[in-house]
Amino acid sequence: KIADEMTKVFIKEVSLRYEKETGNTALPSRFRPVLIVSEYSTSPDRIVAGESFEVLVTLENTSQSKYVANVVIRIDTDENALKLLEKTNMLYIDRIEKGARYQFRIRCQAAKSLKRGSYPVNVSVSYDDNNAMTYTLDDIIPVHVETDYRVEMDFDDSFVHITSGEVLPLDINVENLSRD
Fold first, then answer.
1. Looking at the whole model, is its pTM more than 0.70?
2. How wide is the angle at C-alpha 161 spanned by C-alphas 159 and 164, nearest 5°?
3. 5-43 residue pLDDT tens
4. Is 128 within 8 Å of 69 (Cβ atoms)?
5. CB-CB contact of 172 with 152 (8 Å)
6. Mapped to the 3 state alphabet, what secondary structure does 117-149 carry?
7. DSSP assignment letter at 22
8. Cross-strand bridge partners of residue 101
9. d(CA 163, CA 166)
């Protein structure tokens, strides 16, 4: 009976996550990511459907002892929502020193037909550490898009023949043509 209890198999799922904000140092250094997307912002702050904007991305080498090299960055978006305005969606960085940061800009345009909401900019990074080990990083930058109200008014031809001082009844119908 004791032997049966000892042969049971327990399967556990283990996942490791590094959270810079909490200062978690419980993970062994070999599991800690070296290169992370530490910051991002958009310019302008308010992005409107149909307008172009920039995303400023900061990569940070969190290692205090190792540089990273051969950094290849790939940017992907849903072209029907956010169109890249760059000549290419790839960027190469030769080396980022230990503890250093590297910033780059992505120019995009939000489709005019977009509804208000968040749309992803996917950032994929591959890099080598100073021991020639290759690592990858995938991150999603949410871009919040607003819509402006588009109000149009149509007038009939009766306004063409108005004389000075003439009083006309005026009916106004207003329609909001935005996608919200």
1. no
2. 90
3. 444 333 334 344 444 444 444 444 455 668 999 999 999
4. yes
5. no
6. EEEEEEEEEEEEECCCCEEEEEEEEEEEEECCC
7. T
8. 60
9. 6
